[in-house]
Amino acid sequence: MRYDEMTQSVLEHVGGEVNVASVVHCATRLRFRLNDESKADTAALEATAGVIAVVTSGGQLQVVVGNDVPQAYAELGKIMNLGGDQGAGARAVAGAC
C-alpha cells in the first residue's frame, strides 16, 4: 500500500488542509473534524485505494483504512501540520476511539 498516495488523495477529498480543523485516529479510522463539511467529496474518498469506507458520525468524517491506520496517519503527518504551532494547520491527537 502506498500510504503517501492514499493520504494525499484523502486530504484533497476532505477539502484540503485548510478545511481540516482537526484529525485524530483510532484503531481503524482517520477521524476528521472539518471546517466546512460540504467541501468533502465522500464518493471520491470511497473510491480512493486503501479506503475501506467513509462514515459521518458525531460531527466527524471518519475514513476507515483498517489496522494500518498508524502508517496512514504517519504519512498524513508528513504533509500536514499535525500538532505544530504554525497557525492554520490541523491539530491532531492519536489515541483510543
From TrEMBL:
Limits of the PTS EIIB type-1 domain: 4-86
Catalytic site: 26
GO terms under cellular component: plasma membrane
Major localisation: membrane
Keyword Ribosomal protein appears in the UniProt entry: no
Recorded topology in the membrane: Multi-pass membrane protein
Entry's Gene Ontology molecular function annotations: kinase activity; protein-N(PI)-phosphohistidine-sugar phosphotransferase activity; protein-phosphocysteine-trehalose phosphotransferase system transporter activity
Pfam families: PTS_EIIB
InterPro entries found in the cross-reference section: Glu_permease_IIB, PTrfase_EIIB_Cys, PTS_IIB_1, PTS_Sugar-Specific_Components
Subcellular location: Cell membrane
A biological-process GO annotation: trehalose transport
Keyword Kinase in record: yes
Keywords, comma-separated and alphabetical: Cell membrane, Kinase, Membrane, Phosphotransferase system, Sugar transport, Transferase, Transmembrane, Transmembrane helix, Transport
Protein name per its UniProtKB record: PTS transporter subunit EIIB
